[in-house]
Amino acid sequence: xxxxxxxxxxxxxxxxxxxxxxxxxxxCSEIVVVGPxxxxxxSDDSAVSDQDDTAFFVPANEIMTFRGLxxxxxxxxxxxxxxxxxxYRTQFYSSLTPAIGG
Length: 102
Known about the structure:
Elements: E1 8-15, E2 21-22, E3 30-34, E4 40-43, E5 56-58, E6 63-67, E7 76-79, E8 85-92
Antiparallel strand pairs: 1-8, 2-7, 3-6, 3-8, 4-5, 4-7
């Protein structure tokens, strides 16, 4: 079986508002988020409802990794306040790909 490198990483950005917005459609197994000015709420509610009680708050300049995903659309984000830009990185690491030489 041929080896296929599925280690795909994409840098993304989104301008946040006071309502939850789904992250970009990108296959991934984890997302690294850097908290923008005034922080960001990250929810695993892909229905994009206002569920701050189940959301993670990522403070400004803090880095948080969310794992166990299949697509970035599984997360949504909203601004702590204002309309900052959220920078995040989608990463896909598959342990199902056969090892080189195996």
